């Protein structure tokens, strides 16, 4: 070790090291090699760097960062490296998967066509989500972004529980089930504990994996957690099963990545984020896909969450992620305080794939809803000025007000 500080160690003499390889320090702390330079290697440390001293020895592990995956993970809470933190003992039999893999190509994909019900009527009717889609949940703090995500997990209960009706036992095949992965990035430990409690009280933990990189964890772990969760979700996707992954939230991951990059002395770009912050998110979200029938027809649906500052959807990270995903659900503080919850702004929220994934019955009911709501909002603005409105306008106003409720 040449120098160490701020979670970054500069190490000399690791000649054959690969980019992204795990290394182990003498104190037992692990790290990942990110910057391979001429005279030394920049290593980010997973854990406390206080135990590392100048002149310590560093060992290569020879393996790129990997995490455990498989059905043994269901019902567990793990950290960004896949180590259990719920106190229920070690993981039973599992395979290990690389954290960074390439997304499936065009040939092995299929267009999204099965619905993924969130259980929220406003979402399922107006911005429907299909299996294999990426739908961004964006809004200011305290607008109920996490609530939408958690409700979606809890709503999969009826899909994952054994059927009550005896004659319909076969319907609960793997093709119906939807396993859930929830990645908490940079949240308070108390918040994560609360989430675990909510999910387990609803008996939803049995089909869920929680990956937690809390605010007290070092930045490299907050940066890694989404990829770890994604690798666990891909196990289901690649074995013909269906999974849903929630990243809560990616703006914290971007901040952690910015911190790492600046400490590694990579040149900063807009808002001091490094130049590859777009690639950071695109390579993550491209891994959510619907596989073709030849490759097992599995799917991974992603619901990334982004927190905006004062409703600014056109900031750097929000625009990046909006352009990567297949649509967004915009939540607004004003609607939230008016008592419209989930506080979805129907005008700004879109689903670019969803209607193909809606059920026929749902389509018939909801086909004209968006148009009617748009017309209502148009007329409602005028209605504030005038009192004598014709009957058609009045009917439109009444219907719109009821729809909004």
UniProtKB/TrEMBL annotation:
CDD domains: ATP-synt_F1_alpha_C, ATP-synt_F1_alpha_N, F1-ATPase_alpha_CD. Residues 119-351 form the ATPase F1/V1/A1 complex alpha/beta subunit nucleotide-binding domain. Transmembrane segments: none annotated. Keywords: ATP synthesis, ATP-binding, CF(1), Hydrogen ion transport, Ion transport, Membrane, Mitochondrion, Nucleotide-binding, Transport. One of its GO terms (cellular component) is mitochondrion. The keyword Hydrolase does not apply. It comes from the Eukaryota. InterPro entries: ATP_synth_asu-like_sf, ATP_synth_asu_C, ATP_synth_asu_C_sf, ATP_synth_F1_a_nt-bd_dom, ATP_synth_F1_asu, ATPase_a/bsu_AS, ATPase_F1/V1/A1_a/bsu_N, ATPase_F1/V1/A1_a/bsu_N_sf. Residues 1-62 form the ATPase F1/V1/A1 complex alpha/beta subunit N-terminal domain. It is found in: Membrane; Mitochondrion. The keyword ATP-binding applies. GO terms for molecular function: ADP binding; ATP binding; proton-transporting ATP synthase activity, rotational mechanism. Its main location: membrane. Residues 358-405 form the ATP synthase alpha subunit C-terminal domain. F-type ATPases have 2 components, CF(1) - the catalytic core - and CF(0) - the membrane proton channel. CF(1) has five subunits: alpha(3), beta(3), gamma(1), delta(1), epsilon(1). CF(0) has three main subunits: a, b and c. Produces ATP from ADP in the presence of a proton gradient across the membrane. Belongs to the ATPase alpha/beta chains family. This is ATP synthase subunit alpha. It comes from Pelliciera rhizophorae.
């Amino acid at each position: 070790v040449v120098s160490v500080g701020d979670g970054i160690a500069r190490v000399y003499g690791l000649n054959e090291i690969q980019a992204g390889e795990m290394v182990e320090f003498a104190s037992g702390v692990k790290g990942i090699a990110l910057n391979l330079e001429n005279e030394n290697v920049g290593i980010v440390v997973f854990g406390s760097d206080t135990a590392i001293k100048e002149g310590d020895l560093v060992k290569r592990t020879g393996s790129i960062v990997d995490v455990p995956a498989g059905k043994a993970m269901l019902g567990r809470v793990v950290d960004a490296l896949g180590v259990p933190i719920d106190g229920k003992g070690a993981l039973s039999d599992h395979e290990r998967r690389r954290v960074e893999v390439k997304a499936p190509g065009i040939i092995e994909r299929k267009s999204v066509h099965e619905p993924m019900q969130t259980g929220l009527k406003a979402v399922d009717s107006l911005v429907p989500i299909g299996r294999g889609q990426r739908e961004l949940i964006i809004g200011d703090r305290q607008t109920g972004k996490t609530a939408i995500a958690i409700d979606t997990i809890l709503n999969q209960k009826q899909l994952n529980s054994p059927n009550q009706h005896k004659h319909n036992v076969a319907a609960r095949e793997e093709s119906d089930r939807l396993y859930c992965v929830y990645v908490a990035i940079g949240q308070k430990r108390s918040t994560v504990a609360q989430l675990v409690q909510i999910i387990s009280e609803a008996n939803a933990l049995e089909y869920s994996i929680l990956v937690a990189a809390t605010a007290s964890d070092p930045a490299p772990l907050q940066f890694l957690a989404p990829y770890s969760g994604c690798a666990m979700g891909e196990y289901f996707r690649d074995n013909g099963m269906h999974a849903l992954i929630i990243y809560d939230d990616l703006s914290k991951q971007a901040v952690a990545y910015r911190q790492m990059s600046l400490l590694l002395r990579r040149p900063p770009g807009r808002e001091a984020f490094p130049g590859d912050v777009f690639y950071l998110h695109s390579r993550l979200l491209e891994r959510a896909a619907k596989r073709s029938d030849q490759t097992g027809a599995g799917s991974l649906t992603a619901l990334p969450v982004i927190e905006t500052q004062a409703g600014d959807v056109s900031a750097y990270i929000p625009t990046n992620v909006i352009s990567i995903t297949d649509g967004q659900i915009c939540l607004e503080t004003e609607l939230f305080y008016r008592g419209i919850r989930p506080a979805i702004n129907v005008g700004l929220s879109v689903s670019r794939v969803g209607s193909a994934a809606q059920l026929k019955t749902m389509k018939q009911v909801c086909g004209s809803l968006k148009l009617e709501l748009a017309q209502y909002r148009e007329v409602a603005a005028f209605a504030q000025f005038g009192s004598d409105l014709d009957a058609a306008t009045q009917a439109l106003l009444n219907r719109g007000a009821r729809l909004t409720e």
